[in-house]
């Protein structure tokens, strides 16, 4: 039974449990998801400084994990520590931003991101550029208000993200929309199921990407 390390760079055990449940449901039956949570930092990463600090926590989590893991998922949308872990690990490492962007852009689709964190707009655009998908990127649409407060209100979060998704499509011409955030995982699943639009939930996308890399 392959062990798959899932690292939550957000310092919230509750969020980690949610992410691990989503990943396990999306994973092949024989996979065992091993969740790990950042030892310090905010419960939800909302700016570039927190994202940079999270990269150090990601490496610590990876070093403390069992050595027989067959792959790793970094479950924060800025993919903190991704390049570092790829340099260290003999096994595949995927980030939820990269995985969901590759899936959203498949077949040459134009894609956007709906999210709650205005201070991460530039880092997200940076991930798009690093992957080489800027020519297909239609930009970000944001919800209003404090991202941490909104994320604590599931119905309001889902409604606000649904509006942002619609704007990505109607105003920006996106053909697929990613829900941009690991802590938004449950809302992403709900929207992918109920909206008649191509909504990409990033945690399942990362599971699918890792499965491809593992063969």
Give your account of this protein's structure.
This protein is α/β, with parallel strands linked by helices. The chain has two domains: about 100 residues, 3-Layer(aba) Sandwich (Rossmann fold), CATH 3.40.50.12500; about 100 residues, 3-Layer(aba) Sandwich (Rossmann fold). Helix content is about 50%, strand content about 15%. It has nine helices and eight strands. α1 links the parallel β1 and β2. α4 packs across α5, α4 crosses α9 and α7 crosses α8. It is globular and about 45 Å long. The protein starts with a strand and ends with a helix. The relative contact order is 0.17. The model has no long low-confidence stretch (mean pLDDT about 100). This is Aspartate/glutamate racemase family protein.
Set out the fold topology.
Elements: E1 3-8, H1 13-26, E2 32-37, H2 48-64, E3 71-74, H3 82-88, E4 93-95, H4 96-104, E5 111-115, H5 121-131, E6 137-142, H6 147-151, H7 154-170, E7 176-179, H8 185-194, E8 199-200, H9 202-214
Parallel strand pairs: 1-2, 1-3, 3-4, 5-6, 5-7, 7-8
Run of helices and strands: EHEHEHEHEHEHHEHEH
Q: How many beta-strand runs?
A: 8
Mean pLDDT: 98
Number of domains: 2
Global shape: globular
CATH architecture name of the largest domain: 3-Layer(aba) Sandwich
Q: CATH top level of the largest domain?
A: Alpha Beta
Q: Do you know the CATH topology of the largest domain?
A: Rossmann fold
- How many strands, what sense, and barrel or not for the largest sheet? 4 strands, parallel
> What is the helix tally?
9
Q: How many angstroms does the end-to-end distance come to?
A: 15 Å
Portion of residues in beta strands equals 15-25%
Strands side by side in the biggest sheet: 2-1-3-4
Identify low-pLDDT runs. none
**Structural Rg:** 16 Å
Tell me the helix content: 40-55%
């Amino acid at each position: 039974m392959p062990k798959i390390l899932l690292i939550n760079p957000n310092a919230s055990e509750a969020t980690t449990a949610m992410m691990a449940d989503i990943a396990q449901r999306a994973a092949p039956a024989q996979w065992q998801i091993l969740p790990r949570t950042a030892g310090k930092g905010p419960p939800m990463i909302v700016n570039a400084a927190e994202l940079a600090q999270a990269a150090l926590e990601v490496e610590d989590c990876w070093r403390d994990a069992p050595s027989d893991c067959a792959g790793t998922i970094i479950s924060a949308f800025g993919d903190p520590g991704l390049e570092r872990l790829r340099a260290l690990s003999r096994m595949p490492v995927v980030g939820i931003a990269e995985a969901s962007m590759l899936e959203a852009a498949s077949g040459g689709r134009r894609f956007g991101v709906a999210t709650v964190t205005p201070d991460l707009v530039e880092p997200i655009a940076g991930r798009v550029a690093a992957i080489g998908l800027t020519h297909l990127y239609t930009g970000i649409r944001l919800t209003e208000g404090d991202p941490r407060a909104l994320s604590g209100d599931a119905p309001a979060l889902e409604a606000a993200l649904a509006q942002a998704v619609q704007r990505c499509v109607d105003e920006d011409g996106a053909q697929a929309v990613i829900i941009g955030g690991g802590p938004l995982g449950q809302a992403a699943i709900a929207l992918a199921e109920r909206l008649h639009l191509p909504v990409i939930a990033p945690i399942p996308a990362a599971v699918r990407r890792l499965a491809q890399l593992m063969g």
